[in-house]
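User: Can you predict the 3D structure for this chain?
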Amino acid sequence: MRRAAVALLLAITLAGCGGRGAQHRAASAGGTDGAAIFASAGCAGCHTLAAARSHGTTGPDLDQLAPTYDQIIRQVQGGGGGMPSFRTKLSTEQIRAVALYVMGATAKRRLSVAAAFKPDHRTVASCRADATCFQQAFANLAYYRGPKVALARFVHAMHANPFVEENCHRIAHAIGAGALTRFHGDVGTAFARGSAVCWSGYYHGILERAFQGIPDSRLGTVARRLCAKVEARDSTFIAYQCVHGLGHGLMIYTGYDLPLALHTCDKLRTSWDQVSCTGGVFMENQSSSYGFKSQWLRPKQPLYPCTAVSRRHKLYCYLMVTSQILPDVGYSWTKTVALCRRSEPGWVPTCFQSLGRDASGQTRGSVTRIEHICGLAGDMERECLLGAAKDLTSNDANGRRAARLCSASPGAVRAYCFYGIGQILGTFTADPAQRAADCRALTRERACVAGANGRPFPA
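Assistant: Here is the predicted structure, written as structure tokens:
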């Protein structure tokens, strides 16, 4: 009964908000900023929504109604009850963004992400330059034929199609969603069938959808259980991807409630799990998987929320912070360098490691461009190179490309760069002999082995 009432109220309301002028503005709205789309589509003139500072009375008070993500998606896409369909007026990504914005802005928010993936018969061959199409098609492949087949096809497509490579992380998330649905929500089995391609997006996609139907009071209990299975802990690397993915999932499921997500991370079994989980929380806060602009970002305070969270939560906030700075400064590396220098005492090097991570990601791993960006860091160049080397090694699940970066680095910082490679290689296996062999295959720098075995950087 409530579902029908919500659909009717939305239909009546959005029919009034879907006038010709509003539809024209909606169609021309660029990007996936949910708040901007909400305003440009004319919804603010019809709804009361505190987050949007709107006081429309034609339709229901959205703060009181608190429609779910899926209810908004269905109504906006399909129309009905006097409301026109917005399927041809807004892109799929824009509809998802505005649905997430409304859901996240209301007091009773709870995102039903797990239900967002539904298999259909779309194929990879039918997709062109459409990220949403590729996400659905590869997720279908994972659902119908299994994640190993989907991931193998995905790796081939990344090499053959620059568009797929540029959008690989979100596509990998979708493959994880298809796999989790195939295995009926079994996180451990889904993890065991996957791989770390494209910044481990497959693993993150699984955990985005793992909290469906869980009340706040049980989030900590469920979070502890999800990554406890042996299949999800074959190595430290896989264990990290699992608890990091939990952080993503917690943010999405709680409607981007940063304090609640961090509080739930604190309930995990070990301090390592707890800290690793916060990495996913802050990454999702700064670079939303669904185009949602988090309320825990302040363009005029570029280092927030790192400056506000407790000390135990600062590490991964600063390791991710340049991802939120760069868009606000027009992707100016020199301005980002200047802001990193304003970090809290003790956290400046960490911010520059974040700079290296973003240099790796933004340049698609171009050694020459990474070197130039890190050169802007001056006395923090080595921290930037360390961050870039670790990111490349993690993304590739091997150190070959990162070794080319380190080998081309200035002699004074080369060993430190290889130390970063070792830190990631060491998570792939617990065997010290194998760790040493993996490092020797790349370099004669002993710092790599020290990093792989968790020893301090040799002075």
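Residues 419 and 448 are 4 Å apart (CA to CA). The beta strands are 48-49, 54-55.
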